[in-house]
Amino acid sequence: MEQYTFSPVGIVQNHIEKPDDYRKIKEKPSTIEVYETYEEALTGIEANDYLDIIFYFHQSEPATMTETHSYPGVLRGVFASRSRRRPNLIGHTTVKLLERKGNKLLVQGLDAISGTPVLDIKNCDTSLFAYEYEQNPVHQNKLKSSPRIDIRNEIFANRTESLMIKAAQSHGHYCPGLALGIMAATHAMNHLEAESDGMEDLLAITETNNCFADGVQFVTGCTFGNNALIFKDVGKTAFTLTQRDGKGVRIASRPESQQVIREAFPDFRELYKKVVEEQDHSPEIMAEYRKTALDRAFGTLSIDFHKLFTVKEVETEIPEYAKIHDSVICDRCGENIMKTRARNTGEDTWRCLPCGDDPFYKLDGNGIRL
Ligand SMILES: [Zn+2]
Ligand SMILES: [Zn+2]
């Protein structure tokens, strides 16, 4: 059989000198000292709450095939146990990262004695847990009958942090703009005691198409695709949530809101200057910048709502429900087109706007334009 050789990347330091009851070892924090040659490999590790530690049972006895140790009387194969007497004497434990100081990691939950050689450190993969949670049949049935139930519960409990984590799954990043959208929309939903089924009975009128609008879309369920989102291209961080009867609430960011956020996170400005203006992309600066940006996005959620926004009850004119239009086929490209967007080119022949070189509206980062 081929042989492989490993060399440790670090060493465990704690108060336990002899292999002991693993629960006792886990009780107190341990330090993992990473050897200096590997210090660069720790870049950005602070972003992880949990780590997988792979280590070598350097004082363990030779491997056995079965194990009765942990549950007396119950015989289990070594591969069905966490026994330290194993073929390759490799240990693997998920730990909580408490703190990093240079090349030292303070962790909780490690069951390795002092002096244990550490072979590898990885960020913890939780995707399988998340998948299994989402696939849980009871939860899935609940979501099939009421797709927004989780979001609704979080709105009523004002759990803006949890809402932002979900909204960012489509927004792609965390930022104060998204946070403001989440806050404004959560407030408006609670103010109107509104529920949303994406059928245009509840409408959101956004006055901007930046990050804020994504927070509004996620929390209110009024989106670009279900026609419950109306876009007024006026460039204000503001939106109105309204029922079909036109009674609603408009929430607008205060003129000083940017300043309030800036003052709440003074470190960000400096780092922003370094990274964006001076283009300093060194790993340490980038790691600090990302962490500060994240703290700022989540921290925005806990700024006093009324320091950031004004709230006003309003009456709005509501458009009719979106009509369903017939489709026709373009005589050039052969694609289906909504009849109201097609040009009649003869007796029941039609042409789409792009094929006919006709002007049409576009919404992009710069707003709506022809
Ligand atoms: Zn954003
Ligand atoms: Zn066409």
Can you walk me through this structure?
A hairpin with a 6-residue loop joins strand 14 and strand 15 (336-338). The chain is an alpha+beta fold and 370 residues long. It has helices at residues 22-27, 127-135, 137-145, 149-156, 160-171, 176-192, 211-220, 257-264, 266-277, 283-300, 305-308; strands at residues 10-13, 30-34, 50-56, 66-67, 76-77, 90-101, 104-108, 117-123, 202-206, 229-231, 238-243, 247-253, 309-315, 327-329, 336-338, 343-346, 349-351, 362-364, 367-369. The chain folds into three domains: 10-125, Elongation Factor Tu (Ef-tu), domain 3 (Beta Barrel); 147-315, 60s Ribosomal Protein L30, Chain: A (2-Layer Sandwich), CATH 3.30.1330.130; 327-369, no CATH class. The protein has a six-stranded antiparallel beta barrel with strand order 1-2-7-6-3-8. Strands 10-9-11-12-13 form a five-stranded mixed beta sheet. Strands 4-5 form a two-stranded antiparallel sheet. One zinc ion (ZN) is lined by residues 330, 332-333, 335, 352, 355.
